[in-house]
Amino acid sequence: MLFNYDGITQEELSEILNINKANTARALKKLEDEGYVYRAEDPADARKKIVYITEKSRDFEQEFHEVFKGLNRILAKDFTDDERETARRLLYKMFDNIAEYERSHR
Questions:
Q1: Considering only CA atoms, which of 53, 50, 52, 33 is closest in space to residue 42?
Q2: Nearest CA-CA partner of 29 in 21, 39, 20, 19
Q3: Total count of domains within the chain
Q4: Which of 1, 16, 45, 96 gives 20 to 30 Å between its CA and that of 51?
């Protein structure tokens, strides 16, 4: 996910992923400890942290995408193109429902 959002703030990442700030901070701490990301103070607001991916993450990006492509091939085996599109739309709709629920119950 971070591959597409290099240089985003922790807060923005929490909002995009619909994950609370504490869980985002814990996950980023683990990724930082393992050398996949680093966080820097936002020059415009010292209270905020900007998240950047490291070269180690970039080296892993292709493998990451290949794993998910493989999982998609397994999950959608024998699906028609229409069935794949329907499944994709339904999953996005379910995700939107979860996000809406989470926003209304904060």
A1: 50
A2: 39
A3: 1
A4: 96
Contact at 8 Å (CB) between 18 and 6? no
Collapse the DSSP code of 79 into the 3-class scheme (helix H, G, I; strand E, B; otherwise coil) and give the result.
Answer: coil
Given a cut of 90, is residue 3 above it in pLDDT? no
Task: Give SS3 for 37.
Answer: strand
Return the biggest CA–CA distance within the chain: 52
What is the domain extent for residue 16?
Answer: 2-54
Average pLDDT rounded to a whole number, residues 16-28: 88
Residue 89 lies in a domain: no
Residue 24 has pLDDT above 70, yes or no: yes
pLDDT value of residue 60? 86
| Tokens at 4, concatenated | 């597409």
DSSP symbol at 19: -
CA 20: distance to chain centroid?
A: 13
Give φ, ψ of 48 to 5 degrees.
-100, 150
